[in-house]
Design brief:
198 residues; 11 strands
Length: 198
Amino acid sequence: MRNLVAVAVIGWICAVVAPVRAQQIDVAFGGGSLYSSGSSFNAGTFLPGEGGGAFIGFNGDVLIRGNLGVQAEVNWKASQGLYGGQVPYRPLYYDFNVIYACRFTRYVGAEALAGIGAESIRFYQNGYSCDFYGNCINYVTSTHFMGDFGGGIRFYPYGNFFVRPEMRLYLVNNNLEFSSNHPVRYGVSIGYTFGGSK
């Protein structure tokens, strides 16, 4: 339910603010992977590495004043991993950022961003737990506040369609389930730019 509310709020902001003040809107879908340090032992406790596997996600930004704007994105592991080789799990990252994006030529642009968000790790279980209203889930969630930094290079091969190699550094607070507090996501997004100068 929280994710649905977040998507609704972002949609409302884009619908109300973007047409009034925006110079450019970008939307994209992407894929990639996650890198982090390998497994380790801390005080006799085994901590697996978080890296590996395919990640997919969506993102969008609205440039409100010149090249400066706001951006939001969500990325998740495409398939469940095995935590410690036993428990199925799936991490999900969502963040809200300030973005600086510019287009140098008709074919090349770049962006840099920084912001805050959260890492939500879902650990799947065999049975379902249901609430009073009949909503049932088969996982428990561990959520951690995080900051993120990143950027990408946009290549415009045809009109306003772009291909963007990108990278994000996540600084996860109290990421006690894994061996590292700073995983790095890297990948490529395909998107479209509405408006803006060419």
